[in-house]
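Try this one yourself first.
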């Protein structure tokens, strides 16, 4: 059975399906982020409690992703992704009718669990079905869907909340998600090269423990935790500041802040290329410093400077994330899928932790407190990148020695 090549009908259908899948997943996942100030008013809850509408979803997804990839080895790639998208979309519609915030949180936890099916399995499906020389193009379209979904979902939510209410907004995103799920199911070809394997929990656990014992990988995981924690915190609480005086922006205009994600689609590619030219660690540190500079600029009152700061912060984050995530694949010498799953676990755990802790800083100290927390997180990430620079050469030499010994023993 031949692998899919660029230019074929199967390749076009697959990449389009993955675009819709990525769009769907991230439109649903981050649909409540622009609504945090609305939830605070509607349910009479603090910003910290309101942030749980996003945090419980990302932590449930983070934990589920550790196991869903292995489950797909037994059940198959496409069936699991189909179930993930359809069930999450139905839950998205039901959330529009919840009677209170507690039920909303329950539904968001369930969404996080089922949403894990696509990001945990998409790469494995593409790696098995697409010719290796065309894999980058296919992954690029999937990532485009992720970016467009995360950005447009928030903008749609903001506009519809202004014109109608948050229930209509979430329900509309749910209906759009059902349509995207059906397109995904229709377009994605069945797996041709998938070989089912038994579920080996012991082997999976051992692999994860081994990765966590690698100091370089542990540094990369923790950098992802702090960087994503900072990123989600800023976008979680910037809405509270922008809808209040002296800005008094509408929910629609606050939603359009997320269009700055376009900056990230450029920076992830641009900084990735510079990392190949000038070194991953150097560019990673630059990305983190750009994030810190952008965060600091948001402390300045004029709106245009604040937006510039958010844009710089977004640029630095996506560039840093691109470098760190690709570094994991290079650093892991075995069970690369599990190494990537652990990276995503720390990434989304940082989203949940930072996004909620940031609320306590907002309530106690205002925007200055939020930025202080973010700068503290970024300082930790920067120190870890310096530590990574010291231990990576040692790890490389150790692995070279181990491979030499293995060859000598053969």
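Now uncover the answer:
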């Amino acid at each position: 059975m031949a692998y899919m090549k660029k230019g074929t009908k199967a390749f076009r259908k697959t990449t389009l399906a993955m675009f819709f899948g990525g769009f769907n997943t991230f439109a649903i996942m981050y649909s409540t982020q622009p609504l945090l100030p609305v939830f605070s008013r509607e349910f009479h809850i603090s910003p910290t409690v309101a942030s749980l509408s996003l945090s419980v979803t990302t932590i449930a997804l983070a934990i589920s992703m550790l196991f869903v990839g292995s489950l797909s080895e037994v059940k198959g790639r496409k069936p699991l992704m189909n179930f993930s998208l359809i069930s999450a979309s139905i839950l998205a519609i039901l959330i529009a009718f919840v009677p209170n915030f507690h039920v909303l949180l329950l539904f968001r936890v369930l969404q996080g669990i089922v949403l894990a099916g696509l990001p945990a399995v998409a790469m494995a499906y593409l790696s098995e079905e697409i010719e290796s020389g065309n894999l980058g193009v296919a992954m690029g379209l999937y990532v485009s869907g992720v970016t467009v979904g995360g950005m447009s979902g928030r903008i749609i939510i903001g506009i519809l909340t202004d014109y109608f209410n948050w229930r209509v907004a979430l329900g509309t995103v749910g209906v759009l998600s059902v349509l995207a799920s059906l397109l995904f199911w229709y377009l994605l070809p069945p797996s041709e090269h998938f070989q089912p394997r038994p579920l080996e929990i012991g082997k999976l656990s051992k692999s994860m423990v081994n990765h966590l014992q690698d100091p370089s990988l542990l540094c990369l995981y923790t950098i992802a935790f702090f960087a994503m924690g900072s990123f989600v915190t800023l976008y979680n609480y910037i809405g509270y500041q922008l809808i209040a005086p002296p800005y008094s922006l509408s929910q629609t205009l606050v939603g359009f802040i997320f269009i700055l994600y376009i900056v990230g689609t450029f920076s992830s590619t641009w900084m990735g290329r510079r990392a190949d030219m000038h070194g991953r660690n150097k560019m990673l540190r630059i990305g983190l410093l750009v994030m810190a500079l952008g965060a600091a600029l948001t402390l300045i009152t004029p709106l245009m400077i604040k937006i510039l700061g958010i844009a710089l912060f977004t640029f630095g984050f996506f560039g840093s994330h691109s470098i760190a995530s690709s570094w994991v694949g290079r650093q892991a010498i075995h069970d690369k899928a599990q190494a990537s799953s652990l990276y995503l676990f720390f990434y989304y755990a940082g989203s949940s932790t930072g996004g909620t802790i940031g609320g306590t800083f907002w309530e106690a100290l205002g925007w200055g407190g939020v930025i202080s927390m973010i700068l503290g997180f970024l300082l930790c990430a920067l120190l870890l990148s310096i530590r990574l620079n010291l231990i990576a050469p040692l790890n490389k030499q150790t692995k070279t020695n181990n491979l030499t010994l293995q060859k000598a023993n053969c």
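Discussion: Residues 396-410 have pLDDT under 50 and may be disordered. The two ends are 34 Å apart (CA to CA).
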